[in-house]
Write a structure and sequence with these properties.
The N terminus is likely disordered. The protein has one domain: 60s Ribosomal Protein L30, Chain: A, CATH 3.30.1330.40. The protein is an alpha+beta fold. The strands form three sheets. Strands 1, 2, 3, 4, 5 and 6 form a six-stranded mixed β-sheet that branches. It has a six-stranded mixed β-sheet with strand order 7-8-9-12-10-11, with helices on one face. It is globular, with a radius of gyration of 19 Å.
Length: 368
């Protein structure tokens, strides 16, 4: 994890090969001040000979309004999100995904906005959606959530995908602590109608973050449509946590995609939650980080992976000072080189202080 300066901003970059032709690249910038992120990211993607597919940025809406506007109008689907807790106003974090070797790129549009891309390789077709929100922000929060799900389903259908083919979601709820229960009811209801529970329940992250549009919810999603059974998809249980479905939160702890040349593990937002579904270590950031990282490591190890397999991730902190605690944990446990974006947000429970999401690859031809 690199905290870059505005003058000399060196991004973190990680690369994994999915097969002989296709490489996945993650470009991350964490900076204490505004940086020319769009130019830096595009230059790095050009060096990698890779197509930018999506990105997000966490920063303060008011301080970085111009940067948000430039990123949103640059053509790459971009989710602009605001740190939800005080103290991180100067911190700017952005992460982009770029692929080389893919083909048949199709932009996904909705209401005149570019909200995603459809692409494919030898193994599957993919749909990556970003920055989906309800245009009618005067509607109630549950109504806006319903519109987000319906919009995702409609645009996917236009490109030949079913909603139930989604394997990973991200939901950024403005003032999440005020309505996460209502959101879960809407999500579960839509999943039932779309047949999600008959297939693989997606991995997911649910975080409190605002957006420049004033919408109650902003959603991202990733869907996979295997060719001739070349990609096997399965939910992966956590060795240290019970299923989130047990407490009516509709997501899998992780989802694995198995390719002919390797495996990709999508780890949901993971926090300090015990086997009985309760928050562990109230008001103790060091213990919450320790348990969360143990849970994440156990998930990785259950799929014969480790920290060296991490491709990308995001760390979420309830308070900016907690970042130092995480960095100290990584030093003590000799965890180095993780490509992680940083955000200061509320989690889905007020008592949660730290959360991490991860993507990992295990490939015979890994470049990491």
């Amino acid at each position: 994890m690199n905290t870059a300066s505005a003058i000399n901003c060196k991004p973190d970059i990680s690369t994994f090969r999915l097969n002989q032709r296709v490489s996945a690249n993650c470009i991350t910038i964490n900076a204490e001040r505004d940086v020319p992120a769009d130019g830096i990211i595009r230059a790095e993607a050009q060096k990698l000979k890779a197509e930018l597919l999506s990105r997000f940025v966490f920063a303060d809406n008011s301080r970085y309004a111009a940067s948000f506007k430039n990123l949103c109008s640059s053509g790459v689907p971009t989710a602009c999100l605001s740190h939800a807790v005080a103290g991180g106003e100067d911190f700017f974090s952005t992460q982009a995904i770029a692929f080389s070797g893919i083909w048949k790129l199709e932009p996904v549009e909705c209401g005149g906005r570019n909200i995603g891309v459809v692409y494919e390789d030898d193994d599957a077709r993919y749909c990556l959606l970003s920055n989906v929100f309800a245009p009618t922000i005067a509607a109630s929060r549950p109504e806006q959530a319903e519109t987000v799900f319906r919009t995702m389903a409609d645009v996917m259908a236009r490109h030949g995908f079913r909603f139930a083919e989604i394997v990973r979601t991200w939901f950024f709820n403005d003032h999440i602590l005020e309505w996460y229960g209502e959101f879960n009811k809407v999500r579960t209801g839509f999943f039932n109608r779309a047949g999600v529970f008959e297939k693989t329940v997606p991995a997911s992250t649910g975080i409190g973050a605002g957006n420049p549009f004033g919408a109650a919810l902003l959603g991202n999603a990733f869907a996979v449509q295997p060719k001739d059974g070349r990609v096997k998809i399965q939910a992966v249980p956590s060795p240290m946590q019970a299923s989130a479905l047990n407490y009516e939160s509709s997501f899998s702890r992780a989802v694995e995609l198995e390719y002919p040349a390797g495996r990709r593990l999508l780890v949901s937002g993971t926090a300090s939650i015990s086997q009985d579904g309760k928050t562990a270590f109230l008001d103790d950031i060091d213990s919450q980080i320790d348990l969360t990282m143990q849970v994440a490591q156990a998930l990785l190890q259950s799929r014969k992976m480790g920290w060296e397999n991490i491709f990308r991730g995001v760390v979420y902190f309830k308070h900016p000072d907690y970042r130092k605690c995480f960095e100290e944990y990584c030093r003590q446990h000799k965890i180095h080189g993780l490509n992680l974006a940083v955000a200061f947000t509320d989690m889905c429970r007020d008592e949660l202080l730290f959360e991490i999401e991860l993507d990992a690859f295990a490939s015979k031809i890994s470049l990491h």
